[in-house]
Structure to design on (476 residues):
């Protein structure tokens, strides 16, 4: 019976879907000329007939209008310097149907970012990747939309990482897991910002009927995806059964009536907005510009929606602060105990009002502080590499400082070695050994102890924190 049911599903979907090959090549939702190539030098060329060529390697991304010229004649060339070796990765914070998202710090700028990793060798994921990169490169910046920092390719894994502004409030899925529903005024505020971008990139879960039928991609498909996501955020429930596999999900989208929120639980404006987005006829759906004039958007446009306060009310601020303190502490000591080419970036961790205190001497400003720290660093390194001393952070405490800053107090030991270590079960950087796995007897290897305090304050861009005050105490 089960096998017969599967065969019946295949017959209903044929020739829309080939269970062995995925979506049919005959009428792909990508342009026929859109494809990719990987060069011997480790560069991925994503080809988009409509938007040009995206060259991506380990150093970053370059968008060009054609193969023929390297000159930026038409002003459409864009370069995003975003190198893989400049990223300090702190592990996964989420995953979806096509990608894994990790937290990272961009070492030269000290900025916390989110890295979205997608495998280019799987066709469906590659199509998603091209759509996202094209959208991020071409969409105008608008307040409230995530900022794009670039992308890089890692040949060993076959993955392209998209670097985005880090949203420490988590994803909408994270919010829904805790909050269950998102209030209408908040949704209206978010959707208004999203509509200015006029695009919504989704996976098969949010795919419109015409996309399932392999018709050409167009903006009405994005409007459907927006409506479906908005329905889920507002009601707390996905309107289709998504656990029975993609084939069954696509059949529901094609043949079931479009979902509509209950008019007993939600405002008429919200219900009308969803109904307009989820019209089966793509040509009948409103454009992004028309939706900006919809009563659901106008109803709350003068409401004072504090999105930050809403997110802060959903998640535990203490855990977020601890994660932040762990990342910033690890980043600082990996710079201090790391190679000289990375240490030079430390200067931009301070501003002109920053201060550093050590041994009754106070240094102020980036230049003085870096000179003082460099002297201490040379002393700890010694003249003979096997006698080099590194930090082991044994205890880390943190508390809120001001509105968005964090005060960090660390204590630990100096041991002979070549790698900074941190004890505890907090956030760990990728590539760092886990202290528990090393079986190190700190007491027998201790060459001295230290205590250090940092006041970290947010800078002018999201995700960047600078050291406003630092105090160091070293004991023999």
């Amino acid at each position: 019976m089960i096998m017969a049911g599967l065969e019946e599903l295949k017959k209903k979907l044929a020739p829309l879907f080939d269970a062995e090959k995925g979506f049919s090549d005959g009428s792909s939702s990508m342009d026929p000329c859109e494809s990719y190539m990987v060069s011997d030098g480790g560069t991925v060329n994503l080809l988009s007939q409509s938007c040009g060529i995206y060259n991506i390697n380990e150093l970053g991304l370059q968008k060009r209008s054609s193969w023929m010229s390297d000159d930026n004649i038409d002003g459409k060339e864009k370069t995003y310097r975003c190198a893989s070796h400049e990223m300090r990765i702190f592990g996964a914070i989420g995953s979806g149907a096509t990608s894994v998202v990790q937290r990272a710090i961009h070492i030269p700028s000290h900025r916390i970012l989110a890295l979205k990793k997608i495998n280019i060798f799987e066709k469906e994921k590659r199509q998603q990747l091209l759509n996202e990169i094209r959208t991020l490169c071409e969409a105008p910046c608008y307040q409230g939309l995530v900022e794009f920092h670039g992308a890089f390719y890692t040949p060993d894994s076959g993955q392209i990482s998209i670097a985005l502004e880090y949203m420490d409030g988590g994803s909408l899925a994270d919010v829904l897991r805790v909050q269950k529903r998102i209030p209408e005024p908040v949704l209206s505020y978010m959707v208004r910002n999203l509509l200015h971008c006029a695009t919504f990139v989704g996976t098969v879960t949010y795919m419109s009927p015409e996309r399932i039928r392999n018709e050409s991609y167009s903006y009405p498909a994005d409007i459907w995806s927006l409506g479906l996501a908005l329905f889920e955020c507002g009601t707390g429930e996905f309107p289709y059964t998504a656990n029975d596999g993609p084939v069954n999900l696509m059949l529901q989208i094609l043949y079931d009536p479009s979902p509509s929120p209950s008019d007993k639980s939600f405002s008429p404006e919200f219900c009308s907005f969803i109904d307009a987005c989820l019209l089966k006829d793509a040509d009948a759906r409103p454009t992004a510009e028309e939706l900006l004039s919809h009563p659901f958007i106008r109803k709350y446009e003068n409401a004072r929606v504090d999105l930050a306060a809403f997110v802060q009310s959903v998640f535990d601020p203490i855990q977020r602060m601890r994660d932040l303190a762990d990342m910033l502490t690890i980043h600082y000591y990996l710079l201090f105990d790391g190679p000289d080419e990375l240490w030079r970036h430390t200067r931009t961790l301070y501003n002109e009002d920053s201060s550093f205190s050590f041994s009754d001497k106070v240094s102020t400003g980036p230049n003085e502080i870096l000179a003082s720290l460099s002297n201490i660093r040379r002393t700890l390194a010694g003249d003979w590499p096997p006698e080099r001393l590194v930090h082991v952070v044994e205890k880390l405490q943190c508390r809120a400082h001001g509105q968005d800053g964090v005060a960090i107090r660390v204590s630990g030991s100096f041991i002979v070695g070549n790698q900074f270590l941190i004890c505890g079960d907090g956030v760990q950087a990728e590539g760092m050994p886990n202290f528990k796995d090393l079986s190190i007897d700190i007491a027998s290897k201790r060459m001295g102890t230290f205590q250090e305090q940092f006041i970290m304050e947010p800078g002018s861009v999201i995700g960047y924190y600078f050291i406003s005050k630092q105090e160091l105490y070293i004991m023999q």
In short: The chain has three domains: 31-165, 173-308, 317-475. Residues 9-33 have pLDDT under 50 and may be disordered. The longest strand covers residues 389-401. DSSP finds 15 helices and 19 strands in the chain.
